[in-house]
Specification:
With 578 residues, the protein is an alpha+beta fold. Helix content is 61%, strand content 7%. The strands form 2 sheets. It has a 5-stranded antiparallel beta sheet. A two-stranded antiparallel sheet has the order 1-2. β6 and β7 form a beta hairpin. The longest helix has 32 residues.
């Protein structure tokens, strides 16, 4: 994501701003073509790898486009627990690629549908408990999963899709993709957002200019496809027999579904940060709403008998970088276009006929930018030994998953050989270990009010004395605690006669620092965000002198401050050096 001379992101229209319809539609078309090609190609890849019929492929493609389009429209909403209120590009749920093909091969569409529906129930429960899992699904875990998606998706796509026809020169077959890549990369290196928005069309068009004379653009299936229609094969139904194959694959599906959940938990904050000109704290209420749409999309994928789709892609960041537009209206147009194209078999055939090397060239650029966004998520704050170790080991284990899978047989191959699943599980396991092996936290339960300030001060003083802090460090910790409390009280919007909010303060020692966390049952009474106020210090005229002083004290004496807003609670965490 490039920035202007003032350090602001080159975003012409933010999610809540009114974008002119021609520009919104043009931006949607920029995203629609490569995103739809990718979705069609990945669905076809999984179905054909399973040996299913062309009739089922037609239905799976149709249903996947409808469900994905509907999910992108729903993501633009901001209703409680439904929608992120942002432009979120959705596509195939990548962690499911191999295991879904195996389920289709063993039991057909009915078995796949049953496994997807049942395993999604677990993910839905996690969405509601996201705040409780904040120490497990950390930015480090989320960033690792995003990076693993980027580095594992391209080798899989190239090895399964970029296959030269028998007797054809490999160099000639790859020429269209290489030509498109050579044409697209110089545009990607430009600073102007107006130029970068043409990178994907230029890559595809240049690739086709080379592919057509070489005879690699197969038009045979295009002429036979109707302009408008619905697949004749129809809904395949659910398999409610719960056979031995179902019980054998269910654990793998649950783990992969949880991996998809982790990926989405990482993707949505990355998309949020890229959607605004100024850096801002992630509103995790929007993340919860986006996760609800993700779960609904996965559940509907199972019900209608297609592969798991409608998963948010952090490649949205790349698209926003190309167009400079993150307005919600783009998501509405993009979703509607995706639904409409589902009913045009001819247009789907035109997209499906684009040679795989050209599609791969597009994804080289997209996934390259995606890897960088994942790395930014991991290393947003300072790098310490724990974060570096978790990231390094999880990445190495994830990239070694292919070799590990070769040591097993049966369904275990597709689980142990899944880079995203292995790397994600390793990152979570190491994160949980660091939580359990750390010093035992101390807690204080009290009301959020001015009268509670002495109790919080005494709580922090006792901690400092117990861990032999210097007087200077003790004073710094007490000052940070007081300013956090005052900031929360300033932000609270409680009417006369309303019940005082409950507060839980937790502190634990971590080497030469202390982790202080304050959890408030907010019910949306706390309107602002301390983290945003720190980012806008000196720029936000709405802040009074006292509020500016409070924020300056926090920024000076705390090494980091994060404010996460969920439905029902606010979580403020900070680190203070001893």
């Amino acid at each position: 994501m490039f920035r202007d001379s003032q350090g602001r992101r080159e975003i012409r229209y933010e999610p809540d701003e009114s974008c002119p319809a021609p520009l919104a539609i043009g931006s949607a078309l920029q995203i629609f073509i490569p995103n739809t090609i990718g979705l069609v190609v990945l669905v076809a890849l999984a179905v054909r790898a399973s040996g299913e019929s062309e009739g089922y492929l037609s239905w799976a493609t149709f249903a996947a486009l409808v469900v994905t389009g509907a999910s992108m429209v729903l993501q633009t909403l901001r209703v409680r627990y439904l929608g992120s209120g942002q432009l979120v590009v959705a596509n195939f749920n990548l962690p499911f690629l191999a295991i879904a093909a195996l389920a289709l091969h063993l039991g057909g569409p009915g078995l796949l549908a049953s496994l997807v529906v049942v395993s999604t129930v677990v993910q839905s429960v996690l969405t509601l408990r996201l705040a409780s899992l904040r120490r497990v699904f950390t930015p480090t875990v989320s960033g690792v999963v995003v990076m693993l998606v980027a580095v594992s998706a391209m080798p899989f796509i190239i090895s399964r899709v970029v296959i030269p026809p028998e007797g054809e020169s490999t160099v000639l077959f790859l020429a269209p993709g290489l030509a498109g890549l050579v044409a697209g990369l110089p545009i990607a290196l430009q600073r102007q957002a107006g130029l970068r928005m043409w990178i994907l069309p230029v890559t595809v068009v240049v690739g086709l200019i080379v592919a057509v004379p070489l005879g690699f653009y197969d038009t045979d299936g295009i002429g036979d496809s109707p302009w408008v229609g619905v697949p004749h094969s129809g809904w395949p139904g659910l398999d409610l027999v719960f056979s031995a194959d179902f019980w054998a694959l269910l654990p793998a599906f649950v783990v992969v579904n949880l991996t998809g959940f982790m990926k989405t938990v990482g993707d949505l904050p990355v998309i949020h940060r890229a959607s605004y000109r100024k850096p801002s704290a992630v509103d995790f209420r929007a993340v919860q709403g986006g996760l609800t749409v993700y779960g609904l999309g996965t559940f509907l994928s199972g019900l209608v008998g297609t592969l798991p789709v409608a998963a948010p892609w952090s490649a949205t960041v790349s698209y926003i970088g190309f167009t400079g537009v993150s307005a919600r209206s783009v998501g509405v147009y993009l979703g509607l276009l995706t639904i409409l194209v589902a009913f045009s078999s001819k247009f789907i055939a035109i997209l499906a006929a684009i040679p795989s090397p050209i599609v791969s060239a597009v994804y080289v650029i997209i996934f390259g930018m995606l890897f960088i966004e994942g790395a930014k998520t991991v290393f947003t704050d300072r790098v310490d030994q724990k974060k570096s170790t978790i990231t390094g080991v999880a990445m190495v284990m994830g990239l070694s998953a292919g070799a590990l899978g070769g040591l097993f047989e049966g369904a275990a191959i597709h689980l142990v050989g899944n880079s995203i699943a292995v790397g994600g599980v390793v990152a979570i396991a190491m994160t949980i270990y660091t939580e359990l092996s750390g010093s035992r936290p101390r807690k204080l339960r009290i009301e959020l009010s001015q009268a509670s300030l002495p109790a919080v001060d005494g709580f922090l003083s006792q901690f400092a004395d117990r861990h032999s802090w210097t007087e200077e460090g003790k004073a710094r910790l007490r000052l940070v605690g007081e300013e956090l409390m005052l900031s929360l009280l300033d932000e609270e919007d409680v009417g006369p006669g309303e019940q005082t909010r409950r507060l839980v303060a937790t502190i634990r020692a971590d080497g030469g620092e202390a982790d202080l966390e304050i959890v408030v049952a907010s019910d949306d009474a706390i309107q602002g965000n301390i983290e945003d106020r720190m980012a806008y210090l000196g720029q936000d005229e709405a802040l009074g002198d006292e509020e500016q002083l409070s924020v300056r004290i926090l920024r000076h004496y705390a090494s980091s401050v994060h404010h996460r807003k969920y439905y029902g609670i606010d979580v403020v965490s900070c680190r203070v050096e001893k």
